[in-house]
Amino acid sequence: MAPTVPQPRTPVEQSDPVRQWYENGLGWATAPEPGPVRLLTGLRFDVLELPAEAGFAALRHLGPKAPVALHGETMRLLVSAGSADELPGLLDWLEWGDIPLGLTAVGAGGRIDAPTPPGWSGSRGAAVWLRPPEPGCEVEPTLPALVSLPAVGGGGTAHHSDPAVGSDLVRLVDTAATQCHRVRLRRRSRQPLAFS
């Protein structure tokens, strides 16, 4: 008599409805680790992280379908994959490079906590969507990107914002840096003066 082999069990990851929503509904990669679902960055999108107070002012430079999440006091703006690598150079070019702004990027090899899907109840303090992605729709065309087009007269590149391809990363980073700086100055002015 042959031994009976039990049927394989469904892995925990596949039985997680949040993980299924991201992987099957959106086609986004999630980290294979147990625990709360984490999204892998650098594949379909990168993430700009900044203080939420500054982020709300930067939203005007995002297309209406560009996903935006909030995690505590941090806003996460989804941007085109590869943008995290561009951020330090953009900040230098925009003359923000030497100023601590609280504006960072998560790119290739990074992870962020997956926001609770829209309409679902999440745990207190969990990341949430302010502008959720749409299942079945490609996210890439809605994301701010560094778009290079031939400059007038040739021989160079120009940055361009076309609603069909998302908004301009340069304008978004410039606005985000400006707003981060303003938040930093306001917070600093609220601190009591230290006298010796």
TrEMBL record:
Domain of life: Bacteria
InterPro entries given in the database record: SCO3374-like
Protein's name according to its UniProt entry: Proline-rich protein
Organism the protein comes from: Streptomyces anatolicus
Lineage of the species this protein comes from: Bacteria, Bacillati, Actinomycetota, Actinomycetes, Kitasatosporales
